[in-house]
Amino acid sequence: MSRRWTLNGQSGFEKCLQYEENIPRTSTLASNEVLVELHAASLNYRELAIANTDGPTAARAGPIRPNIVPGSDGAGVVKQVGAAVSAFRPGDRVITHLAPNLVERSGDEALPAYHDIADGLGQVVDGTLRSEGVFPETALVSAPESLDWSEAATLTCSGLTAWNSLLALAAGATVVATTSSEDKAKRLRDLGAKATVSYRENPEDWG
């Protein structure tokens, strides 16, 4: 039996988030599916935006599949694989990938579009706020052995955002970072950010 959180609307977590337990384990997998026992999940601002379409990010959030399991980032162990799965086997450590469709494309076609994000984990495909779940093979990548579960679960969205900023800096772009405190702002400037904006001091102007 497993446990999960589901989102049954988009009027905020307080109204629409529901906890469920004693969920029967999936008995069969499609050929491209992987059963994962999740050990950690992390939350991003994306989850808040999806859950509350009355907020300022409503235009970007998009609709959800009814009773979706929220969360795009998580880490765990493969328990079972479908017949056509070649990248993973039981016992492998994995982390989730927000936009499974991107993995099946290459070149410029692999650049994420709005619909890739809106059709991803935690919005159309069940996400990571559950103790175990079935994912498409393309929604998973191998987890680094050097990271514990909590660390691995933060890589996909927030980790890749930071990584993209470093690549942009290396390519000569001007990086402006948003943050919540002067201590964090100093650290960001030390890492190469040209300027920083506090979203606590400037809540109306930063985004």
UniProtKB/TrEMBL annotation:
Entry-linked Pfam families: ADH_N (PF08240)
Residue limits of the Enoyl reductase (ER) domain? 12-204
Tell me the domain of life: Eukaryota
One GO molecular-function annotation for this sequence? oxidoreductase activity
Q: Which residues belong to the signal peptide in this entry? A: none
Report the protein name in the record: Enoyl reductase (ER) domain-containing protein
Q: Which organism is it from?
A: Colletotrichum higginsianum (strain IMI 349063) (Crucifer anthracnose fungus)
